[in-house]
Write a structure and sequence with these properties.
The complex is a heterotrimer of chains A (about 300), B (about 400) and C (about 325).
Chain A (H helix, E strand, L loop, with lengths): L1 H32 L6 H18 L4 H28 L6 H24 L13 E4 L3 E4 H23 L1 H11 L1 H6 L4 H23 L9 H16 L4 H21 L5 H15 L13
Antiparallel strand pairs in A: 1-2
Helix pairs in contact in A: 1-5, 1-8, 1-9, 1-10, 2-3, 2-4, 2-8, 2-9, 3-4, 3-8, 5-6, 5-8, 6-8, 9-10, 9-11, 10-11
Chain B lengths: L7 H8 L5 H4 L11 E7 L7 H20 L8 E7 L4 H13 L6 E2 L4 H14 L3 E3 L6 H4 L5 E4 L3 H14 L4 E7 L2 H13 L7 E7 L7 H9 L4 E5 L4 H11 L5 E5 L8 H5 L7 E4 L9 H14 L5 H20 L4 H7 L4 E3 L4 E3 L1 E2 L6 E4 L4 E5 L11 E6 L1
Parallel strand pairs in B: 1-2, 1-3, 4-5, 5-14, 6-7, 6-8, 8-9
Antiparallel strand pairs in B: 10-15, 11-12, 13-14, 15-16
Chain C lengths: L2 H21 L3 H26 L7 H17 L5 H25 L4 H19 L1 H4 L5 E2 L10 H23 L1 H11 L1 H6 L4 H27 L1 E2 L6 H14 L6 H19 L1 H18 L3 H9 L10
Classes of the chains: A mainly alpha (about 300), B alpha/beta (about 400), C mainly alpha (about 325).
Chain lengths: ~300, ~400, ~325
């Protein structure tokens, strides 16, 4: 059935764009600080709650919700860096990488529990910019919100490309990624650029969540799935590679939808895990990661 | 082993020589002897179905408030001992044991997931304490014929059997059962596949998905592509609303029959929107139901307290509480063992009619109340509630 | 603490198990202690793997779950007695652990937590989705070692298993293996250069800790009698990690202290508000991670006179 195939392929690609947007901040932060942030999904979750608050409670237009989500995500990411992560990666302890994982893992569990307590477990909906189900030639069916979300995601990733490759901030980020010590020697302020990276990472996660929210729902545990998807994407694409993240996001979207439709509907989340395990075993640096990268 | 509370302080002293001593302090909590304690063991947090757990707790709190306001049961005040089962079998079983041995609960109410309930039944049997089920649908709950287990509410095989005539009458030839991978979803799917053998020209396909999923677009695309006449959705988590929203998004044209009363929960219309129009939901509740005086008291008090209508499963829970009350009044005792003896014979006015248990040993109709009718109702416009929904069919 | 005291600890646990079973605890307290042994075995073996060998695996709870479901399979389909599974499953899970060890040889640093996270996640999906085999979230029931609600035997068994764990831990930490593990943890490249057999040490560390996790799972299955996929949630892994970290990661008695602290909090908090349990526990764990980075043990021993400061291994 070609209709199902085309439909699935398209859904997968559109979904994948959002996966990439969710993951790109995680990858950026890892590249610069070598920090794997398990609380990344909660930046997204809290961002989407901020959007619901602004749009549903204050009654402001939908696009302000997107901004609110980005701002909230950025603020929480910034606070996480200052309060939780910086004391660890500036310390002299061994195995900082592993320890930051534990710290952010516990932070994420705490944020989920706290959000459940304060917001309750009811599902909330965020209106989208294009709340209409489209039937294109009566062949392809999808929501206008999906197209909006995909376009926005690609635009944001393009913006990040521009920042990374055409601005001074981006040059500093790349310098830190390639050689933290060397970057510090030539006068690049690690703290400042780490903060900027976290702000960007949180903003992207919050925005991605607010774009996803009209397609799904907003609730406290929603960050867990976001985190898992972001991890899979980052691992497949190669930690620290933006290009790889974009490609891997699209790949994950397509693989998930295709396998769910053509293999078994009951195992949706397992396909991503399988892909991630395969990549880690056979190409640990990821599809686009450079060999020899100090991971 | 069980009734050794008196000696605990000396034991705590001994045990404190080990590192475990800390854990023992504070046990043996005091409670007023004249109070009646009822145990409420429900899913109050994730990964349990906390949304329903919340509704259960609201109902229970209200009942206790009303009863105590009216002077309690036989002059004795009622206390609720609340425990969270987290939707986990082992936590549910130990929470129940704690309610029995520690809070001295006379009966256990509020149980929800069938899987948890099946493990809890063993505890009820071991301690000889009544376990009141209401919306746990597994046949096994009463089919196991434990003297301590009672159910005021429906069960899978009967529900499935009642659904078949509906499917036939509507002329559905190809039906997809969209089932979450839990006792609730797969248990119903299995029962329905069995029951539908009575209608040989209807083909059934079961599509299973992960209960906690947040994205059903892929699954719904597959369902839509197989062009069924009807999709029966059997889930309790976010998929109740997702399947409708995303099903319509990917061009699903079939009738959607969503089990069960979820369209009446406050988040239905706000999350589903336009896509909810045309959805049919089976329910045990309808305005044509003969709501008794007891039922009216409940509904009015509930609306006053929480600002929205209770769902039908909350009626059954109310009846569960009243069954325990009736048994305490009849036997003049709140001893669990006495209640186990008395409960099979109680009759009282429930929320939607007289309640009494069928006691046919060896069948699923053991300690089972089954005087419920099943209504199929259609939502014709956004915001439709129970009163506005169109009654499509009744199965008795 | 001297070596002698370390060797007395296992005896203390065995004696405590026997003593508690004789005086007859209230079932709820017994339940709490018995399941605490399950958590002690898990947090303790994870501490050996992460705190001493530096291998941060997130699949540990997955190994325990494999041990539990394996036990159920042997008892239900194989008709074996629960006692036999307590011996067989640790060996079987050790092989799984060996496989993880092979993976750990291939990936380094933060990739290990990530790939083990993926293994555990995929296994959890399988347990729920393959319900025709695992019975999914309907729960898999198996006969208990002792039918009914008499816990005295489990208290004895729990005391013995906890004692056994401390014997294994003493043997590892005080022996050559423990030193080699710590050398790898501190700097794998230098350790390799000094002639530490990375392959053998990593595989051994993974296999031994996996065997303990498998034992924990088998004990759990034989005690609880019902298994469900919720046993393997990331929240549960978070519990185990929190226990080890709060007590003190890389300290011999860190997990023990962590288990006592968290299980006590859980016990007391459950009574008045279940919804606060998780916030409180994760909040405390987070504070410990941020401000007492080496856990309660290190903090307390710093307050004490110098002799006791040698708790640090």
């Amino acid at each position: 059935m070609t209709q199902l195939f085309v439909q699935s392929l398209l859904l997968g690609l559109l979904q994948g764009g959002l996966y990439a947007l969710l993951a790109v901040g995680l990858s950026l932060v890892f590249g610069i600080l070598r920090v794997v942030n398990f609380a990344h999904g909660e930046f997204a979750m809290l961002g989407s709650f901020a959007a619901v608050f602004v749009v549903d409670m204050l009654g402001l237009p939908v696009w302000t919700g997107l901004i609110a989500a980005a701002v909230a995500g950025a603020a929480i990411a910034y606070a996480t860096n200052i309060l939780v992560l910086r004391p660890i990666y500036l310390s002299r302890m061994r195995q900082k990488g592993e320890y930051t994982i534990i710290a952010t893992f516990l932070l994420s569990q705490f944020l989920i529990a706290a959000a459940t307590l304060s917001f309750g477990t009811t599902y909330r909906k965020l209106p989208g910019l294009w709340d209409q189900n489209l039937a294109i030639f009566d062949y392809i069916y999808l929501s206008g919100n999906r197209i909006v979300a995909f376009v926005a995601a690609i635009a944001m990733i393009a913006l990040l490309f521009f920042i990374v490759y055409r601005t001074d901030i981006g040059r500093a980020w790349r310098a830190l990624t390639q050689n933290p010590l060397g970057a510090a020697v030539v006068g690049i302020d690690v703290n400042r650029y780490a903060n900027l990276a976290f702000l960007a990472s949180g903003a992207f996660a919050g925005l991605a969540a607010a774009l996803l929210a009209p397609l799904m729902f907003v609730f406290p545990a929603s960050g867990v799935i976001a985190l898992v998807k972001a991890f899979i994407v980052v691992i497949i694409g190669g930690l620290g590679s933006i290009r790889g993240t974009l490609f891997a996001g699209l790949l994950l979207g397509v693989v998930e939808v295709m396998c769910t439709v053509y293999i078994d509907t009951g195992y949706t989340d397992a396909y991503g895990f399988a892909l991630m395990i395969a990549v880690l075993l056979f190409r640990p640096q990821g599809l686009f990661g450079r060999t020899g990268r100090a991971v | 082993m069980i009734n050794n509370i008196g000696k605990i302080s000396r034991r705590a002293l001994l045990a404190s020589m080990t590192a475990a001593g800390l854990l023992l302090a504070g046990s043996g909590s005091a409670y007023a002897a004249e109070d009646i304690t009822l145990g409420l063991v429900s899913p109050l947090s994730e990964p349990g179905d906390a949304r329903s757990g919340d509704a259960i707790k609201k109902t229970a709190d209200l009942w206790v408030k009303l009863i105590n306001g009216a002077g309690g049961i036989g002059g004795r005040q009622v206390k609720l001992a609340v425990f969270d089962d987290q939707g986990k079998v082992e936590v549910g079983a130990s929470a129940m044991e704690r309610a029995i041995t520690e809070a001295n609960a006379s009966a256990i109410l509020g149980i929800w997931s069938s899987s948890v309930a099946l493990a809890q039944m063993e505890v009820a049997k071991g301690y000889n304490v009544p376990l009141m089920a209401f919306y746990s649908w597994s046949d096994d709950i009463t089919a196991k014929n434990y003297p301590q287990v009672f159910r005021i509410g429906p069960y899978n095989s009967q529900i499935a059997a009642q659904m078949v005539p509906f499917v036939k009458d509507r002329g559905y030839k190809k039906v997809v059962v969209l089932a979450e991978d839990t006792a609730y979803g797969l248990g119903f799917a299995k029962a329905f596949e069995e029951a539908v053998k009575a209608a040989p020209d209807v083909t059934v396909e079961v599509v299973q998905f992960q209960a906690q999923t947040q994205d059903l677009t892929a699954v719904m695309s597959k369902v839509a592509a197989s062009k069924p006449d009807a999709v029966i959705v059997q889930t309790v988590f976010s998929a109740t609303n997702l399947s409708i929203k995303q099903g319509r998004e990917v061009g699903l044209k079939a009738d959607i029959i969503t089990g069960w009363d979820w369209p009446l929960l406050p988040d239905f219309w706000s999350t589903v929107g336009e896509a909810g129009v045309g959805v049919v939901y089976p329910t045990f509740s309808d305005p044509s139901l003969n709501i008794t005086a007891t039922g009216k008291t409940f509904v009015d008090a509930y609306k006053a307290a929480y600002g929205h209508e209770p769902a039908i499963f909350q009626y059954y829970l109310w009846d569960n509480f009243n069954a325990v009350k009736a048994a305490i009044e009849k036997s003049g005792s709140s001893e669990p063992a006495k209640l186990v003896e008395t409960l099979p014979g109680v009759t009282f006015e429930g929320t939607i009619g007289p309640v009494f248990f069928r006691n046919e040993a060896g069948t699923v109709n053991f300690h089972q109340w089954d005087k419920f009718a099943m209504f199929f109702k259609k939502l014709n416009k956004v915001g439709d509630g129970e009163k506005e929904a169109e009654l499509v069919q009744v199965a008795k | 603490m001297t070596k002698l005291t370390h060797h007395l600890v296992p005896l203390l646990f065995v004696a405590a198990g026997l003593g508690l079973s004789l005086i007859g605890l209230r079932p709820v307290v017994a339940d709490l202690l018995i399941l605490s042994v399950y958590y002690l075995l898990l947090a303790g073996s994870w501490n050996l793997l992460a705190g001493f060998a530096g291998q941060y695996s997130f699949a540990h709870i997955g190994l325990a779950t494999a041990g539990a479901y394996g036990t159920a399979a042997l008892v239900i389909a194989g008709g074996l007695s629960g006692w036999a599974t307590l011996v067989i499953m640790p060996l079987a899970v050790a092989l799984l652990g060996g496989g993880l060890g092979l993976v750990a040889l291939r990936v380094r640093g933060v990739q290990l937590p990530l790939i083990t996270f993926a293994f555990a996640g995929a296994f959890a999906v399988f347990l729920a989705a393959a319900s025709d085999i695992t019975n999914g979230s309907m729960g898999l029931q198996l006969p208990k070692l002792v039918p009914g609600f008499d816990r005295s035997l489990y208290l004895v068994l729990g005391g013995i298993l906890a004692g056994l764990f401390f014997i294994v831990q003493n043997w590892m930490i005080d022996g050559k293996l423990g030193l080699l593990m710590q050398a790898i943890r501190d700097n794998e490249d230098i350790a390799h250069g000094m002639g530490v057999g990375i392959f053998r040490v990593k595989i051994a560390a993974f296999m031994i800790t996996a065997a303990i996790a498998g034992l924990a799972g088998s004990f759990y299955a034989n005690y609880v009698g019902v298994l469900a996929p919720s046993m393997l949630s990331m929240g549960e892994m978070g519990y185990v990690v929190a226990m080890a970290v709060i007590g003190g990661l890389g300290y011999r008695y860190g997990p023990l202290i962590g288990v006592v602290i968290i299980r006590s909090i859980e016990y007391f908090v459950r009574g008045f508000g279940a919804e606060y349990t998780l916030v409180i526990i994760t909040g405390i764990a987070l504070l410990v991670v941020l401000f007492f980075r080496e856990g309660v043990i290190a903090y307390v021993s710093r307050l004490m006179p110098r002799q006791t400061a040698r708790w640090r291994s």
